[in-house]
Amino acid sequence: MSNQILFWSKVELRRHQAVILGELAPTMVLKNATYLNTARHCWTKANIWIYDNRIVYVGDNLPQETTGTEMVELDGKYVVPGYIEPHAHPFQLYNPQTLGDYASVRGTTTFICDNLKLFLSTPITKALSLMEDINKLPYTYYWWCRFDSQSELLNEDALFSLSNVKKMLSSPYVIQGGELTSWPKVMQGDDNLLHYMRETRRAGKRVEGHLPGASEKTLTQMALLGVDCDHEAMTGEEAMMRLNLGLTTSLRYSSIRPDLRQILREMKEIGAAQFDRVIFTTDGSTPAFYEEGVTDKMISIALEEGIDPIDAYKMASYNIARYYGKEHILGMVAPGRVAHLNILDAVQHPNPEAVLAKGQWIKRDGKAGKERSSFPWNDYGMGPLDLNWDLTLKDFQFSSLAGIDMVNSVITKPYHISLNPTAEKLDDDHDECFFMLVDKKGKWRVNTLLKGFATSVSGFASSYSSTGDILLIGKSKRDMLAAFNRIKEMKGGIVLVEDRSVVSEIKLPIAGGMSPLAVEELIEEEKKLTSELRKRGYAFEDPIYSLLFFSSTHLPYVRITQLGLYDVKKKVILFPSIMR
């Protein structure tokens, strides 16, 4: 297959034709399979011929030429299209390659990925090359084009320039703009973002919204301005409202919003009768959340809630492919489609017993293939984090009266600091900690206090953040410094320190935010870190998402950013970052 995404050369197309003419043997034949016939919305029995990475025939016949063909008997088995994750944030400690390895064993073989990390971590030319070259792996990767950083960056205009956005949109690997976390700016007259939305439409690509709690009036305006889909419905009523307005509705089941079951129940109670414009997403959940499954888990929930099985599988495959205009190559068991296929022992069991990705066995007889894929991240400017500067106790000076109070995992509000922040160590009888954001290049810092994160975290540091800068949290300035030094030594990661000793850590040597470990191993590391944080008073759902969103200005009400402590509602800096 040529390197342009799923675009077969003339030579390849003639080979596919030769298979049908009996002049060339197919690579594989799946015999007597009962497959999901999405065109007819039914289950049909047929033989499925595959040549290399493509389905070339589905029907009653068997090939005339079978020299070298792998014949696989599937009588009593069910075949469905490979699942598609339409809203992947593939940098949540894992990386796109390790996510692909893990999710594909559970049937998800196509990912439509956030590219924010690429904008922030590597030059645009390398990002474009990465988006192309990662498709050499057995899975299929498409990408978004972000319009902004969802924070307040010192170099925002340079990173998200019209030139860079146009370069991204011109890539065949980019199939949507967004997600549009800065929709309030568009509503309030930001014509730069509106121009990016128009450029996306001009390129024939979708625009993904991010509209939590939006009213019918707001949703209508955003639909008029160019939003095609939204994944932020939190109730069945909100999901139905989006459908009523003509939006494709992406139902979410994630580590910070695990409420799919309730949404489906409410949609059915309201009267939802068909789901052709409904799709599924796990919205970039953290590793441990995937322990029970990825897209397959969402299908299981839908089946348990009485959703028609064909609808459930289409919401995870065909509906997504059709929405993005890719149904000619994905989302169907039909000639011409990529051989992403899941083999099930029963319709009610969406975790497949066997998986084909681009015609290769990823899983067979319930067992994953032994070989893991790999990807040379260093070649694309996403190597280990080199912190070639020092932090000292002089940097741990706190004088602000305004701090950050955590409402839940991701929502924060301002609060008035009343304790003395000049002490070297804070007491454990309250839930206030020292809190810092430090430039990964060592040029500036923001110092404040954080309330609600934990009662007895002594020193905690993370190079995993929404901007790639360093977060420091803790009761002890010396342990915070020790945690920073450990991150520096690891060249990226998350570390919890107590009495200058490491309690738990996750090494993240890929651009300071990603691990090369298999997701199964990463799950155990995350679970250990979360357990240790909970022992020290962390009480919310997901500490990893807390780290990610501390700087994210698409959420209320106050954020720590490169510019300083930022009031989201008033759009003002409460106090600025300090040059070191």
UniProtKB/TrEMBL annotation:
Classification lineage: Bacteria, Bacillati, Bacillota, Bacilli, Bacillales
GO MF annotation terms: adenine deaminase activity
InterPro entries, per the entry: Adenine_deam_C (IPR026912), Amidohydro-rel (IPR006680), Metal-dep_hydrolase_composite (IPR011059), Metal_Hydrolase (IPR032466)
Superkingdom of origin organism: Bacteria
Annotated Adenine deaminase C-terminal domain residues: 410-571
UniProt similarity note: Belongs to the metallo-dependent hydrolases superfamily. Adenine deaminase family.
Record keywords, A-Z: Hydrolase
Protein name listed in UniProt: adenine deaminase
Entry keyword annotation includes Calcium: no
Domain Amidohydrolase-related: from-to ranges: 78-353
Catalytic activity, reaction form: adenine + H2O + H(+) = hypoxanthine + NH4(+)
UniProt keyword annotation of Zinc present: no
EC number: 3.5.4.2
